[in-house]
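Q: I'm writing up a methods section and want to include an example of the input and output format. Could you take the sequence below and give the corresponding predicted structure tokens, formatted cleanly so I can copy it straight into the document?
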Amino acid sequence: MSKLANNLIHKGYLKTDIIIDAFSEIDRTEFVSDRFRVAAASDIPLSIGHGQVLPEPSVVAFMLELLQPKRMHDTMVVGFGGGWIISMMSYIVGADGGVYSIDTIHDLKAETERNISKYNFIARNNITQLQIVQNCADLPVNKKFDRIIVISPALWSLCAFRDFLAEDGVMVAPIDNIIYYFNNRSVDEDIIEERFDSIKFLPT
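A: Here is the clean output for your methods example:
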């Protein structure tokens, strides 16, 4: 088990076996520049360039525990984020699942693809699809996802992502720096919504 995963377990953030395994197997140091590699195992946010910041691992763990992705899930990751969370989601959903990720920053795509390619199982099983989008019209028509995680707050207003949730689907997103949970299990077709004011996506 990685030092990072072990620390997050002891802090109470990591609880689910498959998510713990993802944190252990997908090394955060592979997704940051050389000058930040020493700090990658620490529970601190890190810049990945292009005005983008990877949140603290404890925040990512909290979001994934809320999300509860599972094997065979079709998932959406809103924001490339250098590929760390995409790769963990790919590990969790496995060869029979899928991870579709979008962003608006062209320069991030090639960098994210390079980072993801460090894990052969992702390319071998064709798990991920990365797409540059400009608006909601660029997203796949009539596609529904079991899980959606938003890791780029700037993209939240791009589209009504709740419309892309499958029945029983779950979405976790930072809105105004607060973590929100959306659950499409409610009767009367209303999505259950919960906010976690104590968890800030990025330090203020």
